[in-house]
Records
---
Amino acid sequence: MKAVRIPRVEAEKVRRLAEKTGAKDKNRLIVTRGEFVEIPIYDGYEELFSQYEIIQQENPVFKKKADLLHVLKPLIPENLHHLIPRSYKIVGDIALVKIPHELESFAELIAEKIMEIHPRLKAVWRDFGKEGMLRRPHLQLLSGEGSETLHREFGCVYRLDVTKVMFSPGNLGEKMRLVRLVRNGETIVDMFAGIGYFTIPLAVHTKARRIYSIEINPDSYHYLLENIQLNRAENVITILGDSMKVTPEGVADRVVMGHIFCHEFLQVAICALKPEGGVIHYHESVPEAVIQRPVERVKNAAEKAGRKVEITGFRKVKNYSPGVVHVVVDAKIV
């Protein structure tokens, strides 16, 4: 469990940033140790606090009743304690929790306790993962009612239906990093826009000239259009279709490839760049044993296209599964 460790004099400023961006772990308390303060944060938000020390808390202090493990231990047999979910996602006023099949008979109990911990929630859904290239959620309602919600982060608002489209709060750090990289007047192509995960913060927080936002899933596209209106994003051109076929060529200063299984689209992304070149942000889910694979894929795609490439960044976004990480490669193509 990560925390930002800062001197006391800077604690209030950092606390406000963590609260505003949704980075602060609401299940843990801020603690003071000597002359330093530890502000607990969720995984995936480290980039927001890159100028400070990020630590693994050895003795985190949980809010009363906010630790799901602590709440459930008396209610579930001891031999199953190691399977109790330690974390869950909260999107707007809906919680998504992964529950092992061994705890099948306790699923509704787990959901009830999550609702007790977070009284503002209207529903808890069991998360079985995503299906297919469209990444459709596979969910089961456990408690409460409703699947559409309004999620706010980083000064942006997203409307979505959790049963139809995915949303990953853990990517906020990467969104904010990307915003800082964009220069005024750029043209950006977002090849896998979803409901606007990257498009919306780019439209809200940068002075990009134009953003081409492409999405193949009709449900996601519906919410993309709605979120563009909600955030008053006037510089976005939306395209419904397969990025392999509808991505505009020769227009982009920057291409965002936010789908973690999209290596087959690298040639298309390169073609989307202006003749003088530009930058590609390529995401991939990769086993740590072959951690350099995404970099090699970008280099090979550039070579096939007859273009030169410079890898300007390579970073972990978050853990994807045991032994597998979500990474992003920043590549300058000329």
Note: The domain at 68-146 is CATH 3.30.300.110 (GMP Synthetase; Chain A, domain 3).
---
Amino acid sequence: MQLTIKELASRLGLPYEGDGAVVLTGVAALNAAVAGRGDLVFMTAPPTAKLRAALEKAASSAAAAILPPGEPFDRIPVLRADNPQLAFVRATGIFHPPELPAPGIHPTAVVAPSARLGKGVSIGAHCVVGEGADIGDGTVVFPLVSIYPRVKVGAGCILHSQVSLREGVRLGDRVTLHNGVVIGADGYSYLKGEDGRHIKIPQIGTVVIEDDVEIGANSTVDRAALGVTIVRRGTKIDDLVMVAHNVEIGENVLLVAQAGVAGSSTVGKNTIVSGQVGIPDHIDVGENVIIAAKTGVTNDIPSGSFVSGSPHLDVRVWRKFWAAAPLLYDLVKEVKRLKARVEELEKH
């Protein structure tokens, strides 16, 4: 794709300075070794001396830059944005739109007679769409996706290869599921019988994924035993994340790789659950919480908290603890020395 700076500025709704007729052909990092002719670069706000030096070097090869307002620069044309990185992300989407197949049903796909497909739906090779499934307008189903009976998928969704949607689950609009995601598998729920064997508790609930959710590769959201497991709108889930049965994930939550949320727990809106965090069952995590990587949550976390460690502590307490930890060995030696001295004095 080729766009002039004037055309791109118009599409992004941004002002520009310099020659609007300069042609852009792509985007690149703010690095002279990476940026080439026709590339657009950006500099984050607030700028640093290091970033300004990188911009000076990149200007020898790049075609234009997105800069914050008031940042002086005239070596190449400039687009102005309060948030240059966000503007750059939008520009990247213009130059590199997702590669999506054309609407239609591949000859090798198996679509049940009672399934309903909306306008402009694409069903890829070797997909299976079960009885009573409902797929919304413009949704793309890549090859080797399994959609069980009575599944409802909203409009504008993207289901990548090897996704499995189990019976009766519901997806909102513009949901993206990456390769290997499983929605609606049975929750891990057993009772021990009188003879010591584990007896499976039937998982007869469902899963609801609301609008604008994105779930990374090989992550799972289990169906509820009774009722609903729910992931609310705008939440983004990384690769290899486990969301157990009857969990509720609030709006705009970030769940990072290898995090796990056990059954019947809740995570409030705008919370960040970092990598390898473990949240046990029946825990309530409030809104606007930050849980640092590898934290082991042990009880409810109030809204607005920032916690770390295992068991979890307020991050300020945790930092003090680990600042003191290297001193503990010397402290133990000193206590032993003093104990020996006291014992010696007591002998006399």
Note: The chain has five helices and 39 strands.
---
Amino acid sequence: MPRFVTFSRNVFIPLTNICRNNCAYCGFRCDIRHPEAKLLSPPEVKDILTRGARAGCSEALFTFGEKPEEVRGFREWLLRLGYDSIIDYLAEMCRLSIRIGLLPHSNPGLLEGSELEKLKPYNASMGLMLETVGIIKAHESCMGKVPTVRIKTIETAGKLRIPFTTGILVGIGETREDRVNSIQKIRELHERFGHIQEVIIQNFVPKARTRMALHQAPGLEEMKSTVSMAREMLPSDVAIQVSPNLISPGELVRCGASDLGGISPETIDYINPESPWPGISELQAMVDIPLRERLPIYPQYIKKKWYSKEISPLIMELSDAEGFRKTYK
């Protein structure tokens, strides 16, 4: 069991819920004609960032549906904001985040090398869930969920020395062998490039009005087994993260999990809106070892200086001598 468990204090910024994929378990994606379909405007983003800074957050988690420009009608929305591409818009919002005082961590789906290079200077870290290397029914007709193309993005991030988050989803129709093979692939990528700072072991939660609404969620024993397997297979410098708003983390920490991800005092989990974040004191009560707050870039990557001159002053302002978050009062 680790000496302490880490977490970050963040705000969740869903730039858009338009996505070219249509995964059977996803409740985040909207059809562009749906009343809840959205593209956040710069003032809306600024408001979230400002509230996050006032609440003592250090991380701005940017996420959106994958390659939304491939969805008919979305580009017109984007052009009305004055941007030619969602990646250009994301880069500008990351720059805004830095000016306000939050370190960006972006999860924009599949990216080409040129797109990763454009975002790298303005992100403390980035992420893409591998989900599974298995071929599953839940991903049928989802171009972005082909395992080889997701692996390529993670690999390219490694070549660019971007501190990276990835992970697997448990219970979406994959086999145990698929989980082992997924963790094996993540380990191989880290052994080649050294850029995987954390691996999320996330349990599937059924969503109403999705094709998997009646699909059974994995139980605690299945999650404990998966976390234990991942801890045994992954190098010690790669943290294992579990989501405390989706599952009680206490026993998973005893199985090797050492991080509880981003906890937001200001925003909901837009991917799992039915599952509220625990407060920090509540979070501490869930585990029987100390909590330690971190930045979206892990201490070892701060020490290795895997960050750009654009975010260096903010990292120095927010981090302590060990590379964790300075005590926030």
Note: DSSP finds eleven helices and nine strands in the chain.
---
Amino acid sequence: MTNGQTTSHDEGYVLITGASSGVGRTMARELSGSHRLILGGRDPDRLQQALGDCVSPGKHLAWRHDLADVENIAAGLGSLLAEHDASVSAFVHCAASLDVLPLRSLTTEMVADTFRVNVFSAMEIIKALTKKKLNKQQLRAVVFISTIASKFGAKGFSAYSASKGALDALMKSLAIELAPQVRVNSVLPGALRTPMTESMFNDPDLVAKFERDYPLGVGLPMDVIHAVEFLISDKARWITGQQIIVDGGRTSNISA
């Protein structure tokens, strides 16, 4: 439930990366009343602010780590869990790196940085969480926040889209490899109206395009959060290896 009521979840914490901003921060706030959370982020000030937004901040944990530092993820996460005698039952990978640039402006290092945050960090976190000594075999559900841009082209999105396509492919393989103990799925949002994208909606031409292309209109973070909450719950016990598209019908609209 996301009604602000605190309930007990003996199965462990929900780890949310990218929890200090954007959809991840909103997700942390909305899920904090019904789940114990580990909020992952790299900016200490924003991470503490996000923690303060949560219901009962004292029951949640903050994990400060730059996910581009892939090599030290397992050690950092392991230390946090050991310090608090905690375990993670669900992992939601919201963190993402996005640079909208044409191919001619991309460098190998820029693309590698995108993959480190968007894909490699998720692999390392799951690798750590599936270790019995580190997480007590408590992991049950993983949800990757992908994008419909992993399935369809967009100018300037080549590195980002490629990384999200890789993330979805990783999801498919891990869903088989980690079954039946762990369910793994992706949520693919379309355009969302968030504080980070608000400036886009100052462009009347773009707003008109969205209204034309999205049968149900532009989405809100809660549209994605509701899907995630379902997928990490026991109600989704027979769902794994799926790309759940949450886009207001955009990808079904061949007239767009």
Note: The domain at 13-245 is CATH 3.40.50.720 (Rossmann fold).
